[in-house]
Write a structure and sequence with these properties.
- The complex is a heterodimer of chains A (about 110) and B (about 110).
- Chain A has about 110 residues and is mostly beta strands.
- Chain A contains no helices and eleven strands.
- In chain A, the strands form two sheets. In chain A, strands 2, 4, 5, 9, 10 and 11 form a six-stranded mixed sheet that branches. A five-stranded antiparallel sheet of chain A has the order 1-3-8-7-6, with no helix packed on it.
- In chain A, a hairpin with a 6-residue loop joins strand 4 and strand 5.
- The relative contact order of chain A is 0.33.
- Chain B is built from no helices and eleven strands.
- Chain B is globular, with a radius of gyration of 13 Å.
- Chain B starts with a strand and ends with a strand.
- Classes of the chains: A mainly beta (about 110), B mainly beta (about 110).
């Protein structure tokens, strides 16, 4: 069956450390993958998109990798801050076709303590 | 407004009643998506439109659910004969382009069926 799995429901780290979140997928061949941040009671907010031919993408303290052989994306937040505490969702294009809708993982809730 | 607008924000209804949830996307956005999100879960795909054409409705749970976007802008998600299991947060999102576009989410409509 097709699945998107995010490594854990919750991740707790100390301020200043690097947070690494994992997104694994099964039986999909996505052309791209996106990461979103969701704060309690709010809608998801787009962070980064990475395409299948890109190994890595960076934006400020964020870094995303995409390994189509392992069927995995890693999302890193360096020098984490308490303000980074939120739920992070990965989403992929399930059918590798133009105009298909994103499928989301369950999310990982990150807590950064000072 | 500048963002995706959903109404009502909260809707409480009795079992068996019909409800209509409205989404006003960002002006000029081609694609419009409906998702449903349970607490602690990622958004679950329901249906989406490119302009006024419904591209995929495979995520609609059953035939009590329907959606339309008659003029390629505002969309309505209708649930007929509501049941308690329909209680959830219903989220609308829009994107500027039909493929690989970032999704802009609204604040959602919280439906409670008594």
């Amino acid at each position: 069956s097709q699945k998107i799995e995010q490594n854990s429901e919750a991740l707790n780290i100390q301020e200043g450390k690097t947070a690494t979140l994992t997104c694994n997928y099964t039986n999909y061949s996505p052309a791209y993958l996106q990461w979103y941040r969701q704060d309690p009671g709010r809608g998801p907010v787009f962070l980064l998109l990475i395409r299948e031919n890109e190994k890595e993408k960076r934006k400020e303290r964020l870094k995303v990798t995409f390994d189509t052989t392992l069927k995995q994306s890693l999302f890193h937040i360096t020098a984490s801050q308490p303000a980074d505490s939120a739920t992070y969702l990965c989403a992929l294009d399930p059918a590798n076709q133009a105009g298909t809708a994103l499928i989301f993982g369950k999310g990982t809730t990150l807590s950064v303590s000072s | 407004g500048a963002g995706v607008s959903q109404s009502p924000r909260y809707k409480v209804t009795k079992r068996g009643q019909d409800v209509a949830l409205r989404c006003d996307p960002i002006s000029g956005h081609v694609s419009l998506y409906w998702y449903r999100q349970a607490l602690g879960q990622g958004p679950e795909f329901l249906t989406y439109f490119n302009y006024e054409a419904q591209q995929d409705k495979s995520g609609l749970p059953n035939d009590r659910f329907s959606a339309e976007r008659p003029e390629g802008s505002i969309s309505t998600l209708t649930i007929q004969r509501t049941e308690q299991r329909d209680s959830a947060m219903y989220r609308c999102a829009s994107s500027l382009v039909a493929t690989a576009g970032e999704l802009f989410f609204g604040e959602g409509s919280r439906l409670t069926v008594l």
